[in-house]
Amino acid sequence: MLTISVISSTLAINWMHCYDTRNFTADSIYATNRNLLLSSLASNITVLKSGFYNTTIGQEPDKVYGLTLSRGDVSSEDCNSCVNPRSQYIMSTCHNQKEPSMWDRDPDQCFVQYAVL
């Protein structure tokens, strides 16, 4: 399972690891699916205004599962402002790994995850 976790309103990373056991290439179907999924999380959580959004993109074996969650007292706009940069950071930091993990220092505003099950 590939998991990336990002929590907080800052990008001060407390722990991060990019596993190199499962990789993909930049021009693969998986890469396209992952990029589409991560770029859709912030806008969809804002539209739904529930603070929670989960989705899948693609077909097996290139299917990507994604989830984002914001604290209940965080506005949709603040949630979007939290989720969007973390999604971009995930794509740029462990750019071709299917199994990276990352946590921010302060678990307080949002959570972003994508996974290959």
From TrEMBL:
Signal peptide (from-to): none
Official protein name in the record: Gnk2-homologous domain-containing protein
CDD domains linked to this entry: Gnk2-like
Pfam families tied to this protein: Stress-antifung (PF01657)
Keyword Repeat: yes
Keyword Signal listed: yes
Keywords: Repeat, Signal
Transmembrane segments: none
Every Gnk2-homologous domain range: 12-117
